Amino acid sequence: MTATTQPSTIDGLAIRKDFPIFQQAPTEGRLPLVFLDSAASSQRPAVVIDAVSDFYARTNANIHRGVYQLSEQATLRYEEARHIAAQFINAANPRECIFVRNTTEAINLVASSWGRTNLNPGDRILLSVMEHHSNIVPWQMIAEERGATIDYIPLTGDQRLDLEAFDALLKNEPKLVAVTHVSNATGTINPIAEIVRKAHAAGALVLVDAAQSVPHMPVDVQALDVDFMAFSGHKMLGPMGSGILYGKREILEAMPPYMGGGSMIRKVTLEKTTFADLPARFEAGTPAVADQIGLGAAMQYLSGMGMENVRQHEIELLDYALEQLPGVPGLTAFGPEDVNERAGVISFTLGDIHAHDVSSILDSENIAVRAGHHCAQPLMHDLGVTATTRASFYVYNTKDDVDRLIAGLHKANKIFGLS
Amino acid sequence: MSDDLYRDIILDHYRNPRNRGTLDPADYSYEDVNPLCGDEIRIDVRVKDDKIDESAFSGRGCAISQASASILMEMTDGKSLDDVKAITKEDLLEELMVPISPARLKCALLSLKVLKAGIYGVGHEDED
Questions:
Q1: What's the rounded Cα separation, in Å, for the pair A379 and A386?
Q2: Do B37 and A371 touch (CB under 8 A)?
């Protein structure tokens, strides 16, 4: 991803009017909310909340079952959302977009289904040290079950993937490379196109954890040539419980179902079941219909702004924050310095003040940030810290939010007597 | 509100912890972590005549978890093991004298959980 040179047309303050949560008055005695934790879960605009509510109010029925009008309408809207998702990431076919609850479920689906049929004793999987636990633990589980071995791509001093080490690890001939597009803890953007090209040349498939990229920048699965890509709706203005597993059609078609049950069958007898085609094969049981429709609405809302614009808006905030933060005594920020190599995420430590104390003091100023290990304990270990404080940006953030953050950090320093 | 949370008593115990260190040998030793934020506390205890003769804590973490451990050392100094077993989480929270939000309860109570697990033996009911 490269930054456009045009300034962003997004006005964070104007956009907040679309979000009910920013319209409510703060609790008495509290300042207006500064929300800097979108990397954990974003806020949702009224169009998304309305899409969910409208489904239940006007077209609620189970899908792919009833032959009555209401059920047909529900099915239509659910499948429309799938088309929107396919367009959003430029999938060749909507059938390649499997609805899942979140990134975690998407990765577990691939680890279980693909892993169980393709991994054999002695096979290798290649992950990286910067992965979220959701792109480590499912692989550890299936590797143990199948007798496979996991290698990890190490990091450089500024928390980027060590690509020389990656080249060397590819010589182990891994069957799969599973890496994150953007680190949730440091914001590092990984060169996915290059990783995919090299992995394919070495005979490996590639799964990309796109939980922190698809919400924030244009992502084209065909241009990147990824084999699998996973992301969550709730980090991109959509409902919790919505998400997508993208997979290349021929690969998904060769995979056995992940869960058995209703919707995913062609024919069931007491002796044997034959399975449905894509995408139903991987969507057993009644799905989160309203939530996936809400995700479609979120994607349309983001497309209306333009993902290039979203990215540019975050680059501008990031630029501003990275310029201001060194003025806070004791602050150490992690991640690449070049804003073209990082998303709108800043992870930092403040002297020897624990991240939870920093976060509590910021909360007293009604500034919401994340504190802790960010579900990336191996990365924290690599950084030599137990926890960091993380501020993350989205379309509704402004430079004023950054100013409030900086003032809050000065206050934390003052309370702990550091300045 | 956090301005209240970081009152002098917490900051005093955080900066000048009582009984910080380790005891070797000790009659009871136990350590545990708060998986949410990585707070770590270890407590060593020496017992004489069924009373706490010496105690020490070590570990690292947020001001709340470390100050709470220091305060707990003061609370339990010289107390009988039965009295220590009878300490409730409400007792400790009262000694902290600051309002603890639900999100920070695990930080505040980790030391008590560790001390009791040490005295009762591993497998003691969770203090959460």
A1: 10
A2: yes
